[in-house]
Amino acid sequence: MSEPEGRGAAWTDERGALATSEEGRRRLRSAPQASGGHSTPLLEVRDLVVHHGQLRALNAISLRVFPGEVYAIIGANGAGKSTLLRTIAGLHHPTTGSVMFDGKDVTRLRPERRATQGIAMVPEGRRLFGSLSVEENLQVGATFARPGPWTIEGVYQMFGWMRERRNQLTAQLSGGEQQTLAIGRALVANPRVLLLDELSLGLAPVVVQRIYGMLPQILAAGLTVLLVEQDVSQALRVASHIHCLLEGRTTLEGRPADVTADQVEAAYFGLAGTAMSEPEGRGAAWTEERGTSDEGRRRSEGGMGRRAGPRRRAGDTASPPGEGSEP
Predict the structure, then answer these.
(1) CA 120, CA 91: separation in Å to the nearest integer?
(2) What is the pTM assigned to this prediction?
(3) Would residue 74 count as lying in a domain?
(4) What's the pLDDT score for residue 272?
């Protein structure tokens, strides 16, 4: 199968193999292409600075996400990835900077207002209501729904197992089933941009492949995806654009096909000499010269290590934000 234009790596199906079936090819052809045909970003972050108390969690972060893209934020633990998504969703207030959505400044909008504008988030840890049934969690997600194609019935059609288990308590579901339900809960809000925070966290590899195998169908419905993923190899497989954070700063950004494994590794771990060419249509590339330190090594342990496989080449083969969680 040839690689879809603008995508840095082959899409994989739920078994982790290349999508070589006729159905797989059909789904891939129907998925929107990356930003090549768009000059105006759907989502834009400008010079974002976010603090947690006295700690600066994000420092002058800027990015642009175009319609139909899968934009992946990568980085080690503590890099600021989840803080960035939560700020876009309205759950953190920036110290300075702005969040633009469809050309409008939404920096001061409450999370539920952003949901009605078309921003929905699947948070890290899923944050479902365990004492509610599957269908009741989906109904929560529809509370601030926009008009659109996604309904609870549509989610049942996409995830066949949910219909027969719609009355089952969410706490009785497996981790993979809960993650799928969290995605369905976000979809029924009919977002234009879907924020996915650490989809693979704590899940078996086969479950991760199955969940990521849903992305072509989600994209085919017209959604744009901004995802946070600590597993670099997984991010490179599915993303049309990657953006690496280290200690709240941007160290690398560009298309997976335009960056090398050494550049990704240097940006991820904060090694000196990080550099990349300017991505077409993106402006100057974000790079940072950072020395190797004991602290950098310590923070990177458990980052790319077992999960990421950074030396693979790029071409190798919720409910509305702000919705509470149950203790």
Answers:
(1) 12
(2) 0.71
(3) yes
(4) 54
Nearest to 119 by CA among 226, 191, 215, 70: 191
**Confidence (pLDDT) at 234:** 87
Q: Which amino acid does the sequence have at 219?
A: L
The residue assigned the tokens 């790319």 is: 304
Structural tokens at position 232 = 């670099």
Nearest alpha-carbon partner for 2 in 35, 23, 29: 29
For 29, the domain range is: 22-36+65-79+121-308
Instruction: Report the alpha-carbon distance of residue 277 to residue 67 in Å, rounded.
Output: 23
pLDDT band, very low/low/confident/very high, at 50 (cuts 50, 70, 90)? very high
**DSSP per residue, 39-97:** SS-SEEEEEEEEEETTEEEEEEEEEEE-TT-EEEEE--TTSSHHHHHHHHHTSS--SEE
Phi, psi of 162 (to 5 degrees): -70, -35
How would you classify residue 309: left for phi > 0, otherwise alpha for psi between -120 and 50, otherwise beta?
Answer: left
Q: How many structural domains are present in the chain?
A: 1
DSSP conformational letter for 12 = B
- Which helix H or strand E contains 178, and what residues bound it? helix 175-187
Q: Which residue has the tokens 């952003």?
A: 114
Q: Which two tokens stand for residue 173?
A: 């579901």
Adjacency order of strands within the sheet including 104-105:
55-65, 43-52, 96-101, 104-105
**Does 49 fall in a domain?**
no
